[in-house]
Amino acid sequence: MYASRSTMSSKRPVDVGWLAWVGCVVVVLVFPLTLTGMDQIPIQWGRPVETQLPGAPPPMAYPAVTSQRMAPSTLAPSTLAPPNVGPTADFVNLDRLLPAEPRPAAPPYAGLGATPPVPPTAGSVALARRAEPAYGNPPAVGYEMATPDWGFQFLPESILYKAYLAGMKESRLAGHVFSGDSGVNGGDLLFEGSLGGRFGLFRIGNRDNLMPQGFQLDVEGSAQVRLNTSDDVDVQATDYRIGLPLTFANGPWQLKTGYYHLSSHAGDEFLLKRPGFPRLNYARDVLLLGVGYQVTRDLRVYGEVGWAFYSDVANEWEFQFGVDYAPALPTGVRGAPFVAFNTHLREELNYGGNVAFQLGWAWRTDVGRLLRIGLHAYSGESNQYSFFDYYEEQIGVAVWYDY
Length: 403
Known about the structure:
- By secondary structure, this protein is mainly β.
- It has a domain at about 1-30 and about 155-400: Outer membrane phospholipase (ompla), Chain C, CATH 2.40.230.10.
- It has 3 helices and 13 strands, in the order ααββββββαβββββββ.
- It has a 12-stranded antiparallel beta barrel.
- It is globular, with a radius of gyration of 27 Å.
- The protein starts with a helix and ends with a strand.
């Protein structure tokens, strides 16, 4: 069956393998350049949280009552509190203080109702509160200011090792409309949808949704379907994926290992209209290892290797690597730009594969969920593995949601 399939495969106009390796070389060459000026990045990895800023004034003595006291309500709205002063109604900007900002001299206190200075304690959160600036401003805290308390969490809200933005087989919610040029589809208008996602089962780590640290076990699953809108909206093929990733994050580093199963099935309507088309039972059961590194707050590079201990049609090894640039902090309704690049190489294609490029606009929520709208370009062997050895070029628009 597989031998007869190869005779029907369209001749590829270009071998995408060389392009994938060129992309790998570019990433290797560009990566050291991105480290230039790292000392200017507001995130400072691994530094301990300071409970008292150097040079901060000592706690002031409680002042005596005077006849002409200055009530706290007369202070200017922009007045900031010194780091050893407890919360009062006047210091509305306390949450917007950056850890490295100089603190002004303490304002005078007098009269009944004034709040005396309170020395900070080891558990004080006055310096660990995250600011809420519009996207693009420096973050108020780095990884060293993430929630330090570790514990066990059941069904955590966020993900330690986020999905690859341009990874075509990641489990997520997505819809993609494009013109597909291949031996299967001669320029037809196609729709691909992914119905699925990924969520955490439990975590041993902190409770910070934007800067999560620790160990976490996730579950993922999705059905990735292709419809031909130019041919009665027939289902051409569906790929099914389910997996159990075990992830770890510490500072800028993220690690992932685990298992996933993927199988592909051609659509009944597609096969009925093409009685001579060979039906393949493409399947993989894979153990994987992935590494990600946050070069900056918004820029991540990654690589992953997978080994199939069971496969049908597919061979054992696969490799992928790429770059993601997307907002790491909540964006509000304005959003922020994103860019993503991914290369996926597979042994059954003689270590050729595909390259995918995406760019557009993204919105990040308070718990790290990401909505994206943008353009999508793809070149290489089909991402629907029922047609795994057919070359395709895709240009279209898409919406993606990772949670």
